[in-house]
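WARN retry 2 of 3 for item q-0093 after timeout on previous attempt; input resubmitted unchanged.
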Amino acid sequence: MAAGTGSVVRFRLVFMLFVISAIAFLDRTNISVAGVQMRQEYGIDQVHLGWVFSAFLLGYASFQVPAGWLAVRIGPRKLLTGALISWGLLSIATALVPPQAASALWMLALVRFALGLAEAAVYPAGNQFVSRWIPARERGKANGLIFAGVGAGSGLTPPLITAVVAFAGWRASFYVCAGIGLVAAAIWYWIARDGPEEHLAVTPTELTHIQSGLLPAKDDKPAIPWAAIFGSRNVWGLILSYFAFGYVVWIFFSWFFIYLAEARGLDLKSSAIYGMAPFLAMTVGCLLGGLLNDAISRRLGAYWGRSGLAMVSFLLTGLFLIVGSRVDNAPLAVLTLALGGGAMYLSQSSFWSVTADIAGRHTGVVSGLMNAGCQIGGAITASLTPWIAANYGWAAAFGTGAAIVILGTAAWAIVDPRRTIEGEIAPALNETIAATAQ
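OK item q-0093 returned
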């Protein structure tokens, strides 16, 4: 992001969104590590544990659009604060489900569904923040940093949760996650504001810099143009491609730790170490993707910087999944599959940058719709992947993900970030590119 703008408030807030993103994925993936012990205590198999995973994602998907609407109406500051508090309380509730109860499985599923509802706010609210605080020319890097939190949080999960489980049992891991979320809620409410003009630390120079790269706001509380949104080829391309993205990444988030322990025969300690690899690769891929996104957009235009990069990312992911799932050597398989996760996350900043580019004040709603597609893909893979693995093997499970992500490449081909949801030229993005090309 550009320097020399008099203050760096937007940088600090983007970093806090990175931290919140990491906490979100710590809260949602801790169960994949604790799940080994939970299965034994609750007496459930992989397929039934997959139902619990899917319950979270169904709740997450179902509240994406309402969360986006709330992000527009009440602002990302209050929405994310309330969401973080809710995550903490529901993490505690997960640990309190009694295993001896006849309906314990359904209670677990219900709590995780509620956690999904609460976590649904994080990225629509974050992207609404980006649309208000980050000029178009900096959105690739900003989103790259925010979504690097996904890899950071997921990568931190195996060693942290394994250590807590070994020391104090699986329930303590949920209490630790709850405490982290509650602290983050207080910090976010203290330092964040919904717009740069509301923040006392933003200098006039930084404010001018930010506002020069935003879509003009026509109305402070604009009516949502549903017909334009659902009639937009861009929106449907983003939804379908993010469905493919979600299907693949949730193989890693839901099943990779268990895959290492049960399919590759690694012990708890080894699984924790190797289980970090895809998420570290995702972190690197996300940061690199953000840099490439902005750099290619400046040189070749927004279509190639946003959509072109994403298509290359998807094709590489499919290749790594096919090869990695067929390698006999466990460390080499982990490395290859990790490269697949990293390649997938090269595209992450493209998704969220495009929604801010094309939707302006409606970014929260459009990004919520897009993210619903991702979570539906994740909900399907959370339950379908163990079934495919049980009946046809893990190579077939990863191969199915590769086939779906290749189809997602075609969806990205129709996305043009230079056109808003109303079909107009996106002025902030195109003026920026024109200025830097001169």
